[in-house]
């Protein structure tokens, strides 16, 4: 001890210095707080830009016209018409097709992975399926346009070159991993004791799954569906490329339809000059889209929290 | 000094590995004109002035104008003449500009290759079938409504949407501002229209000649009888004073004179367009070249900018 | 089996008829078997699609994806066209997105996990981040268009695109960094505090190094999302033809997905563009595959050593 | 079925079950385990088990933690096969049929051999649906019959009076002891022949434990019961036979009173007197 | 500092610490706890604690699980404040200064009052960096000095010989016992005055435990040590004073030999003789 430096003294001296630096210690939380506020500012930014321009839009176009009429001709030189219904039907139909693909396949995939597959199989299959979620949507758009549509045409001759069906299916495929992995999480959190209880009564795996596991995990499963829908509603590139831009109010999925997202792409990359009603309409549509997806996401979180079973 | 070298450069160093100019040229506007302008820009950068960066966007004629009138772009392509309002705005912003014709486009009516009846139609037939209520109040027009020996099948109408100068030309010039037929399927992308018609035996669409010429294996063009027998659109017939003339239209580019004065590369590019580019690449991108004198006139106008 | 029934004591009124149970049993088990295979099939469906997709992309890009394609600049003519500009544009984008999301994301995560009192404000920010993660990317595009392109006047430059993309992927980084920080065992923090370390010293010297692998994994995933994202850039406005390679943050740029987008829709004009799009997709997928593999390696290598 | 013929015998190793051939030689053997070995991967968890189980008896299985009690009992209705990488050799005869037979469907076996678990594990459904679950999956759809079954089973599990007015409430509203009896009722509803119980009272308070113990005494009139317990007193109180497991082997098997009064093996004695485990 | 003046006295309640005023009245009090109360939210975890701690003594704290031992020891260096919703009243004097004083920086306190935890918790860094961590955060950057400190501390923790050739290897490569001594070395590196140890050997095997116990005996020459232990024999072996906690109260405090030979309180006796806890 004698031969070494007096660490105690060293520390005390240095500490006085460093305590003077305690300004750093105090300012860091403030700095980090500012960083954390950026995310809040982002939301504020989104809401305020959308709200402001939407407000300008509704000065020109009544809410009634926007939500109840069926014609959308934003750039018509003769008589522009602004109804969101054609876009809503486009969005709803493509999302509906997507969910008709994603829900059954996603859920059965989840069931297979969580209830049927051996751990080894699961370990291989799960990450492979998740690859689907990582593929850029532009690639899916290309795939829908150049492969799925021509393929479907073989079976449905009336199918248009752009239509709601093909991008819907491809969106569904893209959403499979989301539904599958969230549902699987929900099923995994059902305690094994529950499965064993049913098995011990002579139930088959299918009966255990249908009558015990799925009911117990239902909130998480529904949440995964809702998030999937929300994802489908917000998806842009697939529909922009493969579903065309026809603004007819129709439910015919074999024909071209435009979604809210594709409309935004069209108007921003197209001809609408800023300051015109057509230009503001894109904010009104975007605001509708934003509110739609926000509500769905909040709803998903609400149900998964509210109905989480207390095991 | 820089000015001098520029003139020499464009004259002597064509094909050389690069001129002395640098900086950027920003072009936006018509989607119809885009393929031609992109082709010219590409060639300009690879053979004339390697260090100049020409960027070509295609947000559409009107959207391009919006940027042009505030001085954001150097060139604004257009598939229609510039409008009064746009000129007024340019004035207001103190921007001097000049409109140049670049090439000729023929508005082409396209049908499915399997359509073996409507390969020839009269101008009048086109004008009536595309106007709402002209043939039938409910607009469910059948091919047989036009000529009785044609199939009794519903006609499916397609066209570019209101974003496009082509739409405006069709509605304003050809249909003389009468309302377009109800239920016409209007699309943003020409690619979509090509696909739609190529798959629809009873479909008919209108768009620029270039999109037809590049896809004549998938779609067919209607030969139009303007009174002197049917004329099929082709580079020859849509040329100045060609027999397809009623349906041809010039396409333009608007040059900001201020930009050309300030930036040598803008002027150099403009000179290139009218000395070489427009004539050489019009054909391969589906436009009829303008008569040489007209291009020469434009070139002289540009060279005179100081 | 008959004597099974006999085993049951006579006074026990039996509801379960073993013969019936047995008869139904084989049907139930068969159903279970069939369903098992159906579920397997359904699980494989996604993978089959994946294989088809990859096969198509590879098949379409054979003969097109070569060194020249990777090193050539963009061009309108298919045999000269390359994607070096898009690759470098993508790199530029990452140069913004990487540092910005790292600072914002990790800072936010530290604040939420280590500093913020668990209360209303904390859950407000947390909810806000979860909600942002669910906002469609196109809406972020509009935000970027309004704020960065217009208000800040950055135009359609790298900085505008990069900042927009940063906000888009920020929630991914925040959430994964939060998880990583949360998984740093409390006893390591206690050890540090026990030595008289201040909070920030503890975070800097103990928490962050331990959380680093998780944070890095999240960063890579966020970057790969940003690399593949197209919609916000379409809104911000990327030139359809941009040959020069961007040299500064304020230059126009293009990225791989945008190139895929334009080539896909222009394939109607020039058939070969479809092959260029496929080749670009292959490059993009390869990049993403490598990034994700790195993320997985990091995660596995540094997983839980406590 | 066959009368108990196995008398005290030594297996090759020192782990032979010793059944003292007194009084109950005339009782039937319901399940008979012969030379059973079980591995979890490399872990040899059950080693050459030979163990009979008599009709209408309560057989207790005791032993220190990790000795293989749960593993053994889960082998009897083949629930152990749910664990991946399990390997089994030897045979278990249920009513003279080898349960590992290819043609023996596990679902069928489990309908005959019911099970009650350590932690009460009702389904997150109503009390009624919990009990009706078994009959329903076995094809009974008739509401009236289901009602009768539910009542009978709940009575059988001595919980009817407590829950008859709240059959439609969620089972999670019951106390731990009630939940466990509900699980027993659920098991009774499919009218099993044998009931396996793995430490059924270890998660319960003393009062509930007593109730379940009384119930087991009643049930043995109609069912054959195997119960795993770590509670020596409990084994002594309620079982007729006791098997002592250690490290995956059966060290001793005999009448409960004999095991607890005069164990043959030193290790059994050590365990019973609390010297380890 | 002030000499021990507190002699046997009764607090208002029955939980008065009884320090038999024999032999070591001349030892200094390093830390003195006065009327300390602590609440976790509504849970009153420490109740009116009065407890002195003598210089160069080993003070053992014993008591059943949940009685507040860890809470108390963590209060001594204010680590307990990391738990949200903690409320504290009363005072703790370290060398006559109240550690809860506004002007007393926790960092300073913790530099003087070091701590060793139940589970060895080295940082996932090299052995060298683990030990150098403390000096570094206190501003010592000089490589040479750091090296000296590391060696001295590792020697002090009786682990130098075992690790001197692998100072740059990750600390997680060490055995549990080595890790615990490394943590002690890490604590010594900032030359604290008092060392708090919360069950420092409970995660260790008997051999490592012995080593750490020997080490504690050595360390007490230079440091004042408080050790929490659930192991009565350990307390008896290594400590000079022992405090018995029960339900957040100090039931008895006295010389270790007295506590273990002739406890004053019935509850202490019951605990020591293994009747509960
Ligand atoms: N699912 C499993 N996978 C691998 N090994 C297992 C598994 N379950 C149990 N084992 C091992 O098998 C052996 C016997 O375990 P088992 O659960 O049967 O013991 P037990 O007697 O029931 O103990 P306890 O009294 O703690 O319940 C133990 O060594 C255990 O580690
Ligand atoms: N972080 C906390 N939040 C709330 N209550 C706590 C917390 N830590 C401990 N307690 C409660 O305070 C009381 C004392 O706990 P403490 O950990 O001090 O006991 P202990 O004597 O160290 O027990 P053990 O021997 O098990 O370590 C217990 O009732 C415990 O539940
Ligand atoms: Mg067990
Ligand atoms: Mg403790
Ligand atoms: O894109 P346009 O040329 O039709 O405006």
Automatic annotation (TrEMBL), chain A:
Its transmembrane ranges are: 28-52, 84-107, 128-152, 164-187, 208-229, 278-300
One GO BP annotation here?
phosphate ion transport
Q: Name one Pfam family in it.
A: BPD_transp_1
| Keywords per UniProt | Cell membrane, Membrane, Phosphate transport, Transmembrane, Transmembrane helix, Transport
Example GO molecular function = phosphate transmembrane transporter activity
InterPro entries, per this entry?
MetI-like, MetI-like_sf, Phosphate_PstC
Alphabetized Gene3D superfamilies for the sequence: MetI-like
Q: Name one GO cellular component term.
A: plasma membrane
Q: How does it sit in the membrane?
A: Multi-pass membrane protein
Q: Which residues form the ABC transmembrane type-1 domain?
A: 88-300
Compartments it resides in: Cell membrane; Membrane
Principal location class: membrane
Family the entry assigns: Belongs to the binding-protein-dependent transport system permease family. CysTW subfamily.
What function is annotated for this protein? Part of the binding-protein-dependent transport system for phosphate; probably responsible for the translocation of the substrate across the membrane.
Annotated protein name in UniProt? Phosphate transport system permease protein
User: In the record, what lineage is assigned to the organism producing the protein?
Assistant: Bacteria, Bacillati, Bacillota, Bacilli, Bacillales
TrEMBL record, chain C:
Name the protein family: Belongs to the binding-protein-dependent transport system permease family. CysTW subfamily.
Name this polypeptide is given: Phosphate transport system permease protein PstA
Primary localisation category: membrane
What is any one GO biological process for this UniProt entry? phosphate ion transmembrane transport
Q: What does the UniProt keyword field contain?
A: Cell membrane, Membrane, Transmembrane, Transmembrane helix, Transport
Protein source organism = Evansella caseinilytica
Q: What is the membrane topology noted in the UniProt record heading this document? A: Multi-pass membrane protein
Q: Which GO MF term does the entry hold, naming one?
A: phosphate transmembrane transporter activity
- Matching InterPro entries: MetI-like (IPR000515), MetI-like_sf (IPR035906), Phosphate_PstA (IPR005672)
Which sequence ranges are marked TM in the entry?
Answer: 34-55, 83-112, 132-152, 158-177, 233-253, 273-298
Compartments, record wording: Cell membrane
User: PANTHER family attached here?
Assistant: PHOSPHATE TRANSPORT SYSTEM PERMEASE PROTEIN PSTA, PHOSPHATE TRANSPORT SYSTEM PERMEASE PROTEIN PSTA-RELATED
TrEMBL record, chains D, E:
Would the keyword Nucleotide-binding be found if you checked this record's keyword annotation?
yes
Q: Please name the SUPFAM superfamilies in this protein's record.
A: P-loop containing nucleoside triphosphate hydrolases
GO MF term list = ATP binding; ATP hydrolysis activity; phosphate transmembrane transporter activity
Superkingdom of source: Bacteria
Residues in domain ABC transporter?
Answer: 31-272
Task: Identify the keywords attached in UniProt to this record, alphabetized.
Answer: ATP-binding, Nucleotide-binding, Transport
Kindly provide the name given to this protein in its UniProt entry. Answer: Phosphate transport system ATP-binding protein
């Amino acid at each position: 001890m004698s031969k070494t430096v007096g660490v105690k003294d060293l520390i005390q001296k240095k500490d006085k210095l460093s305590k003077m630096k305690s300004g750093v210690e105090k300012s860091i939380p403030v700095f980090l707080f500012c960083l954390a506020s950026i995310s809040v500012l982002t939301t504020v930014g989104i809401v305020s830009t959308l709200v402001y321009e939407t407000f300008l839009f509704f000065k020109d176009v009544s809410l009634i016209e926007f939500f109840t009429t069926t014609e959308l001709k934003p750039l018509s030189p003769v008589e522009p018409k602004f109804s969101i219904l054609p876009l809503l039907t486009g969005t709803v139909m493509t999302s509906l097709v997507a969910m008709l693909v994603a829900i059954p396949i996603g859920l059965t995939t989840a069931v297979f992975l969580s209830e049927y597959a051996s751990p080894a199989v699961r370990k291989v299959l799960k990450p492979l399926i998740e690859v689907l979620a990582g593929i850029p949507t532009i690639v899916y758009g290309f795939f829908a346009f150049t492969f799925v549509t021509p393929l479907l045409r073989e079976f449905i001759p009336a199918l248009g070159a752009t239509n709601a069906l093909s991008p819907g299916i491809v969106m569904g495929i893209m959403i499979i991993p989301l539904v599958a992995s969230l549902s699987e999480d929900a099923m995994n959190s059902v305690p094994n004791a529950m499965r064993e209880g049913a098995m011990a009564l002579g139930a088959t795996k299918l009966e255990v799954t249908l009558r015990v596991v799925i009911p117990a995990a239902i909130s998480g499963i529904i949440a995964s569906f809702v998030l999937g829908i929300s994802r489908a509603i917000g998806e842009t590139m697939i529909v922009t490329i493969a579903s065309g831009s026809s603004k007819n109010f129709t439910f015919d999925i074999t024909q071209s339809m435009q979604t809210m997202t594709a409309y935004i792409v069209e108007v921003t990359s197209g001809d609408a000059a800023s300051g015109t009603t057509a230009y503001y309409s894109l904010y009104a549509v975007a605001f509708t889209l934003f509110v739609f997806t926000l509500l769905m996401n909040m709803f998903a979180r609400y149900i998964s929290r509210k109905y989480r079973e207390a095991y | 000094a820089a000015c001098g070298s520029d003139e020499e450069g464009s004259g002597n160093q064509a094909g050389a590995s690069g001129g002395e100019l640098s900086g950027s040229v920003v072009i936006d506007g018509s989607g119809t004109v885009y393929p031609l302008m992109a082709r010219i820009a590409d060639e300009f950068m690879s053979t004339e002035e390697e260090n100049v960066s020409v960027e070509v966007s295609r947000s559409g004629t009107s959207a391009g104008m919006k940027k042009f009138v505030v001085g954001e772009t150097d060139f604004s392509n257009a598939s229609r003449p510039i409008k009064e309002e746009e000129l007024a705005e340019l004035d207001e912003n103190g921007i001097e500009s000049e409109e140049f014709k670049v090439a000729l486009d023929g508005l082409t009516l396209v049908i499915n290759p399997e359509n073996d009846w409507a390969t020839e139609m009269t101008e009048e037939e086109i004008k009536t079938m595309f106007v709402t209520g002209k043939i039938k109040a409910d607009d469910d027009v059948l091919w047989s409504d036009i000529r009785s020996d044609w199939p009794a099948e519903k006609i499916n109408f397609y066209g570019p949407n209101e974003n496009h100068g082509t739409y405006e030309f069709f509605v304003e010039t050809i249909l003389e501002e009468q309302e377009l037929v109800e239920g016409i399927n209007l699309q943003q992308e020409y690619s979509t229209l090509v696909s739609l018609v190529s798959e629809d035996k009873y479909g008919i669409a209108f768009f620029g000649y270039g999109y037809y010429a590049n896809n004549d294996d998938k779609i067919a063009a209607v030969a139009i009888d303007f009174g002197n027998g049917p004329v099929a659109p082709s580079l020859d017939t849509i040329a100045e004073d060609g027999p397809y003339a009623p349906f041809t239209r010039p396409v333009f580019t608007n040059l900001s004179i201020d930009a050309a004065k300030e930036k040598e590369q803008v002027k150099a590019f403009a000179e290139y367009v009218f000395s070489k580019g427009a004539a050489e690449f019009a054909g391969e991108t589906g436009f009829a070249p303008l008569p040489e004198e007209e291009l020469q006139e434009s070139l002289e106008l540009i060279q005179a900018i100081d | 089996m008959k004597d099974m029934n006999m085993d049951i004591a006579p006074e026990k009124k039996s509801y379960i008829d073993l013969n019936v149970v047995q008869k139904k049993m084989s049907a139930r088990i068969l159903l279970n078997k069939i369903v098992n295979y159906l579920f397997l099939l359904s699980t494989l469906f996604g993978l089959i699609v994946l294989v088809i997709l990859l096969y198509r992309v590879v098949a379409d890009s054979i003969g097109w994806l070569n060194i020249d394609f990777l090193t050539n600049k963009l061009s309108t003519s298919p045999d000269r066209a390359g994607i070096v500009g898009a690759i470098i544009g993508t790199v530029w984008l990452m140069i913004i997105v990487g540092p910005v999301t790292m600072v914002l994301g990790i800072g936010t995560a530290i604040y939420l996990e280590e500093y913020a009192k668990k209360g209303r404000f904390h859950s407000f920010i947390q909810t806000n981040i979860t909600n942002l993660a669910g906002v469609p990317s196109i809406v972020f595009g509009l935000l970027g268009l309004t704020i960065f392109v217009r208000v800040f006047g950055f135009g359609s430059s790298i900085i505008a695109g990069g900042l927009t993309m940063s906000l888009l992927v920020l929630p991914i980084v925040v959430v994964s960094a939060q998880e990583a920080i949360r998984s740093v065992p409390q006893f390591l923090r206690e050890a540090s505090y026990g030595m008289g370390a201040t909070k920030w010293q503890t975070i800097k010297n103990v928490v962050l190094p331990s959380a680093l692998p998780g944070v890095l994994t999240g960063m890579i995933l966020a970057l790969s999302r940003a690399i593949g994202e197209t919609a916000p850039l379409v809104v911000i406005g990327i030139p359809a033809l941009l040959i020069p390679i961007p040299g500064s943050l304020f230059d126009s740029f293009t990225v791989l997905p945008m190139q895929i987008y334009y080539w896909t829709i222009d394939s109607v004009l020039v058939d070969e563009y479809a092959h260029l799009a496929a080749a670009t997709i292959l490059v993009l997928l390869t990049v993403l595959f490598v990034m994700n593999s790195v993320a997985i390696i990091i995660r596995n290598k540094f997983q839980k050593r406590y | 079925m066959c009368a108990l013929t196995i008398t005290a015998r030594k297996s090759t190793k020192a782990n032979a079950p010793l059944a003292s051939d007194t009084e109950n030689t005339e009782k039937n053997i319901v399940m008979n385990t012969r030379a059973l070995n079980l591995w979890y991967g490399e872990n040899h968890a059950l080693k050459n088990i030979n163990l009979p189980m008599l009709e209408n008896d309560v057989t207790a299985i005791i032993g220190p933690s990790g000795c293989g009690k749960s593993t053994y009992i889960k082998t009897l209705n083949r629930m152990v096969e749910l664990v991946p990488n399990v390997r089994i050799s030897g045979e278990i005869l249920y009513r003279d049929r080898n349960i590992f037979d290819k043609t023996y469907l596990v679902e069928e076996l489990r309908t005959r051999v019911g099970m009650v678990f350590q932690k009460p594990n009702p389904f997150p459904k109503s009390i009624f649906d919990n009990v009706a679950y078994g009959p329903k999956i076995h094809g009974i759809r008739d509401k009236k019959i289901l009602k009768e079954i539910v009542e009978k089973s709940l009575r059988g599990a001595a919980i009817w009076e407590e829950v008859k007015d709240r059959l439609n409430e969620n089972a999670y509203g019951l106390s731990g002891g009630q939940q466990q009896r509900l699980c027993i009722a659920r098991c009774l509803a499919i009218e099993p022949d044998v009931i396996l119980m793995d430490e059924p009272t270890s998660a319960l308070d003393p009062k509930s434990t007593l109730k379940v113990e009384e119930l087991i005494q009643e049930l043995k009139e109609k069912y054959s019961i195997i119960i795993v317990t770590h509670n020596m007193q409990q084994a002594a109180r309620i079982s007729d036979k006791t098997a002592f497991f250690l490290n995956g082997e059966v060290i001793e098997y005999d009448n409960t009173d004999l095991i607890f009064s005069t164990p043959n093996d030193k290790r059994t004695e050590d365990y019973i007197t609390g010297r380890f485990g």
